[in-house]
Amino acid sequence: MRLSYLFNAVSFVFICIGLVTLLPAIVALIYGETNCILPFVATGLGAMFLGGFFKLIVNHFLTKDKKMTDIKKAEGLATVLLSWLIFAVIASIPYLFFNFGIIDSFFEGISGITTTGATILTHYNYPHTLFFWRSFTQWLGGMGIILLFIAILPQFAIAGRQMFFAEAPGPTEDKLTPRIKNTAIALWGLYIVLTLIEIGLLVYFKMPLFDAICNAFSTISSGGMSPNEFSIAGYHSLPITWIVIVFMFLSGCNLALVYRVITQFKWRMIFHNEEFRTYVGIILIVSALIALFFWNTSNEFSFINLTNIVFTVVSLMTSTGFACSDYTYWAISAQIILLIAILVGSSAGSTGGGIKIMRALIVFKYLKREVIKFLHPNAVVTIKLDRATVAPEIIAQIIGFVIFYVTILVISSITVSFIENNAVIGFTGSFSTLSIIGPAFGSTLGPMGNFENLHDLTKIIFMFNMLIGRLELVPFLILLNKDYWVFKK
Q1: Interatomic CA distance for residues 182 and 488, integer angstroms
Q2: Is 263 exposed, middle or buried (0-12, 13-18, 19+ CB in 10 A)?
Q3: Angle between helices 332-344 and 303-317 (to 10 degrees)
């Protein structure tokens, strides 16, 4: 890896993130929260200063080549990883000014940028500015900061291909246009339009404008942090609940597919997509099964019950983590079904987490093929998705991903269970943070609970899980290879 490329990229990352960190200061001025200006101005200017410092190193000590025209895959992965670590640090610093501890500040910051939505807040008596920052960091992290840089910065547009696929969620290289820069612009354009539409609808149905902005940021990013202490349940509105359901559903779709359907006016395209059909089918089946459990255990079943069920299924499957009811009081059988939906997760190319439906489909077809080959050794069975044959190397990558995912989940669950002396916290907390969902199960980490009382070591493990879950393991696997740690100017 060439240090000149890394330092050059890091300098741009510091400067750009520093600039966006100044935005909450405007919110502070609007709401007269003058004491909230310093945290964001100081953090933003500090980040920009560091960016200038790294730029100085590049110019005077390494090389003046700033174009990064031949960036290699290892350098692209390193840039993505460093960018997210820098974003994590910068996003966490403002919390220190609001009397958060160091570990809690990093937990809340990392939970925000990875769109996990797990929180350590035990009360909501904080300024508007802080709540805006929580949701805004989710919104930036949802589509991806590297994708944003590719869209707006010429330096990143040139080297964008290697970094785009390092950050993009999902096992396929799904481009909308031949040029990565145009793809990034298209996806961010769709992302912004969906956000604005949701804000408008929420305001129309009487949600306060500030809450509408924060909740829309958290919905479209599949983040789930709300300025309301009781999440979406706190607004006591069926129209608002269904609006959030619709936009959570959209955020869990492959955004490239949504873009093509909207721009090409080929609405039937979504039903020809196997991943989308599976996504809709799982939501409907899981919701129907849970509704059946409710019907069998209760003499009353209303439209409100159905709304709560659908909302919870969509919220958890898309890893958004919003709450409109406390599902920890549901029957154990219903909670087990929810766990299955959480594990599968949302679509590849979405803002959601989990293993992803495309990977789950390919693993299922792989196991089916192995059964057929066991029964018929001479049979030639190919694995296809949307009538296209899946390359063997893609299958191998997906199998490896699932194995590593399960390994991290098991190690994290066992370790946290010992630390907390609680297997429920160990397993569901690890499951939730690795799948970047936010709320877990049980009274402590459930939708009405928080992560504040956990041991600091547990919080550190969960922060590690959140970063792995957002970047989908690949950059971290690369770090384990000794050949990766070879530097030159």
Answers
A1: 32
A2: exposed
A3: 40
| Pair of tokens at residue 292 | 């059946």
Bridge partner residues of 385 (DSSP) = 388
What pLDDT tens digit does each residue of the chain (489 aa) get?
A: 677 777 787 888 899 899 999 999 999 999 999 999 999 999 999 999 999 988 887 776 655 555 555 666 667 777 788 888 999 999 999 999 999 999 999 999 999 999 999 999 999 999 999 999 999 999 999 887 666 555 555 555 444 455 555 555 555 555 555 466 777 788 888 999 999 999 999 999 999 999 999 999 999 999 999 999 999 999 999 999 999 999 999 999 988 888 888 887 777 788 889 999 999 999 999 999 999 888 877 766 788 989 999 999 999 999 999 999 889 888 888 888 888 888 888 888 888 888 889 989 999 999 999 999 888 888 888 898 888 888 888 888 888 888 888 999 999 999 999 999 999 999 999 999 999 998 888 888 989 889 999 999 999 999 999 998 888 776 666 666 666 666 666
Whether the CB-CB separation of 227 and 294 falls below 8 Å is answered with no
> Token digits for 247?
């936009």
- SS3 assignment, position 281: helix
Distance CA 165, CA 175 (A): 10
* Structure tokens belonging to residue 152: 């707006």
Task: Report how far residue 334's alpha carbon sits from residue 396's, in angstroms, rounded to the nearest whole number.
Answer: 33
CA distance 242 to 54: 47
Cβ-contact 153, 64 below 8 angstroms: no
Q: In degrees to the nearest 10, what's the CA dihedral of 407, 411, 417, 420? A: -130
| Separation of alpha carbons 358 and 235, rounded Å | 35
Task: Report the alpha-carbon distance of residue 355 to residue 336 in Å, rounded.
Answer: 17
Amino acid letter, 346? S
Site of tokens 């500030």: 210
Strand, coil or helix: what is 389?
strand
Residues with Cβ within 8 Å of residue 169, at least 6 apart in sequence: 348, 349, 350, 351, 352, 353, 356, 472
Q: How far is CA 15 from CA 20, 58, 87, 112, 300, in A?
A: 9, 15, 11, 20, 57
Instruction: Choose among 8, 14, 152, 144: nearest CA to 71.
Output: 8
Q: Are 425 and 445 in contact (CB under 8 A)?
A: yes
Are 189 and 143 in contact by the 8 Å Cβ rule? The answer is no
CA atoms within 13 A on the CB side of 342: 27
d(CA 164, CA 144): 9
* CB hemisphere CA count around 187 (13 angstroms): 35
Task: Reduce the DSSP state of residue 173 to 3 states and report it.
Answer: coil
